[in-house]
Amino acid sequence: MLKNYFTIAFRNLAKYKLYTAINLIGLSVGLGVSILIFLFVQHENSFDDFHENGDQIVRVLWESGEKGDLSTSASTPLATPKTLASKFDGVLKSSHYIDMGTLVKKESGNSRNQEYFIVSPDFLDIFSFDVLHGDQNPFQNTLGGNSVVITESTAIRYFGKADVVGENLLIQLAADFRAFTVKTVLADPPSNSSLNFELLLPEHSLITLIGEDYHERWNNTYGGSFLLLDKNSSIENLQASFVPFVEDLIEKDYETEVNTMLLQPLNQIHLDSNISTRLVLGTNPKLLWILSGVAVLILLIACINFTTLSIGRSATRAKEVGVRKTMGAGFGQLFKQFMTESFLLTIVSAILGLVLASMLLSTFNDLFSKSLEIIFSPIQVVIIIGLLLFITFLSGAYPAMFLTQLKPIAVLKSSLSLNFGKQGLRKFLVGFQFFLSLLLLACTLVMYKQMYAINQYDLGFSKDNVLMIEVPAIPDRDIVPMMKNSFEKANRLKQIVQKNAQVQSVGISNATYGNDNWWTGGFPDKEGKMQYFKFGFVDPDYADLMGYTFTEGRNFSHEFMSDSNAFIINESFAELLKMENPLREQIQSADGEGFADHRIIGVIRDFHQGSLYDEIEPLILTMKPELIFSGISSLNINGASNPTLYIKSATDDFGSLIGSLESEWSSLYPGEPFVFNFLDELVQAQYVADQRLSKMIGTAAIIAILIAAMGLFALASLAITGRLKEIGVRKVLGASMLNISVLFNKEFLKITSIGILAALPVSYWLMNEWLKQFEVKSGLSIGVFVLTVVVGLLFTVAIVSFQTIKAGRMNPVAILKDE
Question: What's this model's pTM, rounded to 2 decimal places?
């Protein structure tokens, strides 16, 4: 019996080649795209599930501010891990996770810029990273000593092989390089790891970098903290016990009204977009919901094609059902027959879809910077089987139920009207299909308009033709001499570079573009309220090179030595402290003393230090680090501490310019890496995620419209075929092809217009929600929605007119000869 089902199914699919091809193409494309999206979503939801004690690991969060205006940060005071582990019984182990950057090299060889993380002795016991070679946890032995842990790819990059236990790496933690011995080589962190590192140094290194009292500092936040809790510990109870501890030991050192420590389970970190940090890899959960919705929409459109075509062909299958019922076929047998056809079509589509997904996988990985693989793991197999069953029943169940319930006598006497019910559902499905397609189209147009507006927006500084060269810092446990010595190092390069005929101007700053690169300071104002601001250290030429506009005062000058004790602030900082005449005021704190003797010499128009997702923050620029540190009571070092040389190019021949700059670099700093970026590319990189999303939605919209167009083409063909005699009679009575075309277009335009109009308010609401994340918005203009309506109507008219003109050109004699 099963063989018979498949035989009949094959015959029916082969008999109606056009409709079979349309269904196969639609389902194959829909499945291929959906498989990729669902694999991506599954991968993002699997982050950190490989850790053996993952359900006991938590991240410490620091919540502070005034009541009603609290902020939560993943950066914690240096004293956090050790203090919590020693004072609370529910904490079994604790560890720092502090990101740094320095120069690293082999004993013989050139140095490289290397990001590294400083971790506590418990780090490798808390997390389950695979050890390939060496000790399981070398940091437990006398705090690690001069041990270093590296990943497999890092070992190959420096030594050309993976097993390098016992080899030495020279790492610059102070003015000189210090030898560290590789004691452990780890496998590279999995692609679904929130913690992504290449080199780990022991916590003992903080003595060299910060000082021996690092574990007692509550006012300096560096990196993050992780805890391993006892299985019987409750996060809620532990957080509650933190409250009196914070009040007793911390509140006296903090000016803010509220200071609290929170605990966040490890499995929540990756999908928490509310806490911004460079320490862990994160994904906005809204992206997963949007992509999942896109995948479902494309599948729905493809399934609607199948259902509408099956209903449209019901007249040709009705007599088949009547004959088979007369011969004794029951409901179950007929239902299985039609579901077999649906399943067979879905299986073939799935095979083609998997082939298509494999072909598009590399492009998809490039788009989202992932390394997904279709490896048919148990989870992936479940996803694919689930999709097949979903599509089979969604697309085949209704036609099967409808046809199997036909009465054989009515069908065989040709007295059955198939218009009631099937026409209503068919019209609804066509309208719904266009609703989904044009919903995606409208969203695509809004997204592209927003991305265009961002690219054209005046950020308040000049980003074009600006080359940035990173100058490795000279490490020191004291920030002030470190910044001074590093700036002197960068200035030596500046003196050479500014003589280059291809260079227009040169400036130095420690902060590059982006909110994560400006340091954050806080101080209590005259009323005792904590005020937070961004700050950066610059040289006198930086502001002019960047093209900042001064609304009051002037820039720093080489001619005035007193400018070393000066500040330049932005308009937002002046508003923050309600300065009426900033050039005649000083920044004071609650104790009346405030910052060291200083003056404000200039106010610059607000510019966007970071992306257009965020509002402009108060900002101070200074040439003297001591001025800032003398007044702040809170410090958060978000970005790197090394200075950056900003070079305004006087030529379009960037290849020649970069070549000459690299030559000058090599002569001054032999053996040190030459690292450069373009400022405009750095600005553009802020929007990579939404650019990827808009491309994905745009691709989905094109696919959805094409699938819907194929379905409309086939449906119009079926509708016109069923009314050929009516067309013949109308032509005999004098109707023109235009009259016939208008007749059918009116019918289909009514259906699609409902879908189009329904898509407009939904797309408006969705895009309004999406735009809320941007501080700068392009707005929802009427033109976008007018274009959506026009595209939908033109598609309908073009497809239906093609079919009606084709039918209208037929000879009415050939159509009516059987009458």
Answer: 0.74
